[in-house]
Amino acid sequence: MNVLRRNKVNKLIKLIATAILEEVDEEICAINKKKLWVRKWIDRRDKLGATNCLLKELALEDPKEYFDSLRMSESCVKFLLTKIHTRIQRKDTLLRSAIPAITKLQAVLYFLATGCSLRTLTHIFRLGKSTISEFIIEVCEAIYESLREFIKIPTTTDWKIIENGFQKQWNFPGCCGAIDGKHVVIKAPPESGSLYYNYKETNSVVLMAVVDYKYCFSYIDVGCNGRVSDGGVFRNCSLYQELENGVLPEGHVLVGDNAFPLKEYLLKPFPGNRLTLQQKIFNYRLSRARRTVENAFGILAARFRVFEKPIPYSPEKVVKIVKTCCALHNWLRQTKLQNRQYEYTVDTENFEEGAIVPGNWRNEPQSLGMQRLPISLSNRSSQRSTDRREAYANYFVGSGSVPWQTRMIH
C-alpha cells in the first residue's frame, strides 16, 4: 500500500512540475513578444548610443569637444558618477535591462549643457522620450544632494573668509558678498493665469543669489514667482528675511545694483548722472566688487545653455534644475579635476589703460531664458543706511583709496 501511495504522489508531483514549466514557457514567450514592441534602433543603445559610441570617441580623441558637450572633463563625470551611482541605478527586470547610471548622467549633463529637446536626447542616447523625461529630475536631485556641501549657508568662519577675500582681492572691506537676481523664464504652467507673468511679459521664477569673491554662489533662493512687482521681488525672497534677521556678521554688508533698496546691510550705487568725484569713485569701487556676481551669473548661463530659452517644465521642477546648475557651477570652479584650459574666463581690469577686459563668457549668445531684475523704484532708505554709504564713500577717497581708481572712472 505504501508503495502504491508513493507512486501516486510522484505522478502528482510530475504533473504539477510539468504545469509550472508550461506556465513559465508561456510567460517567457509573452516577455519576448513584448520586447518586439521596443523600437529596434533604441534596442541598439548599448552598441550605438552616445555613451558607448560618440562620447567614448570624444573622450579619447577630442577632449575639448567632450568638455563642450557636457561642460566638464571626463574625470569630473567619472567622479560625479561615483557620488550618485547608487541613487540613480535601477535593477534589471524580466522585461528589460536597466538603463546604466552613466547613460542617465551623461544625458542629463548634455541636456543642461545644450538645452536641447527631449527628442534630440532620444536620438543621441537612444532612450525613450518619456523615459528621459522621468529621470532628468531624478538625476538632478541626486546631483544637488551629492554636492550640497559646495552650496550651503556660510558659517561665521566662512563669512570671515569671504570678507577677507573681498578685502584682499577687491579692496572692499566689510563686504560679505555681491547680490543679484534673475528671472528664469519658464513655459506658463496650465491654469496658472498670470501668477508667473513678469514685467518682461514672460513667465518666470526668480533666482536670487549672493556670490563670494571667487565667483561662487554662497547663498541661493529660487522659486519666487515672477509676477511680483519690481520692489517686491527682493522682499518676497527668503534671503530678504534672513538678512533682516541678521544672517550677516554685525557691521558687514552686501553690494548690489539699482535693482535693490539701500539698506544698512546692502549698499547700492549713488543714482543719477551729476555725481561728485567722491560719488563716482564709490560707484566704481562698488561695481568692481559687484562684478563677481555679474560674472557668476554670466558663466552660469554660458555653461548651461538650458537657460538659453524657456525651460519646458513645471515651476517645481525648474527650481530643482536651477539648484543643480548652481551646485555644479560651484563644484566645477573649486574641484581640481576640472580642465582649467577650457573654463570660461572672467572680466579683468587693465589699470594702465583704465579699461575693463571682458571675460570670454561674454562671447556666447545672450541667454533669453535669464532676464535681469527691474530697477527698484523705491527711494526710501533709513538715515543709518545713507550714513553707511557716505562712510564708505569717504573711506574710498581717504585711507582706503587705490592708485588706479581715478583713472578707471574716466
UniProtKB/TrEMBL annotation:
Superkingdom assignment: Eukaryota
GO molecular function (one): hydrolase activity
Primary localization: nucleus
GO cellular component: nucleus
Swiss-Prot/TrEMBL cofactor(s): a divalent metal cation
Keywords of the record: Hydrolase, Metal-binding, Nuclease, Nucleus
Protein's cellular compartments: Nucleus
Key word Hydrolase present: yes
Transmembrane regions listed in the UniProt entry: none
Domain DDE Tnp4: 179-330
Protein family (similarity comment): Belongs to the HARBI1 family.
Protein name as it appears in the record: DDE Tnp4 domain-containing protein
Species per Swiss-Prot/TrEMBL record: Euphydryas editha (Edith's checkerspot)
